[in-house]
Amino acid sequence: MSRIGKRPIEIPQGIKIALEGRTVKVEGKGKALEYAVPEGFNVEVSDKNVEISRPSDSRQNRALHGTCRSLIQNMVIGLNEGFVKKLKIQGVGYKAQVKGKKLVLDIGFSHSIEFTPPEDIVIETPVLTEIVVKGVDKQKVGEVAAEIRDYYPPEPYKGKGIRYENEYVRQKQGKSVA
What we know:
This protein has 3 helices and 13 strands. It has helices spanning 3-6, 59-80, 138-150; strands spanning 9-10, 16-20, 23-28, 31-36, 42-45, 49-53, 83-90, 95-99, 102-106, 113-115, 121-124, 130-135, 161-164. The protein has a 4-stranded antiparallel sheet, with helices on one face.
């Protein structure tokens, strides 16, 4: 029994939700997102709420019920508030800068790394050691943050690298000479 799937999604002011066949379109603040609802699921849009019902109580449908609702809810939240992921760079002399639309990383390699984000993602560097990834699509924001982190993941001996804002990296003890 999906408790999440049964909850209605509240539609905030300024957000419009429309159904076109099996596609749910969410619009707000000049941007739009789409989601293809799985076969058999029924989406009902009223003035204030969106409700999703599943075709049967099979294991597959129960699993998709909550997922379907969460994806639509994330589209509504993204267009209303937006999503943000923050990354921190640790290491002496390591820094990040935004030049034009590209993110330029100087993280201890012999060359600078240039990263071009997708169109609907905004990258900011308020401080040289912080990277802020913003966007309306939760999945894309997380994916871009993961791609940036993959250039130099935090290493456990000195703690250098790019990490998420509240990520804890367990430090290992180095070799000791007896």
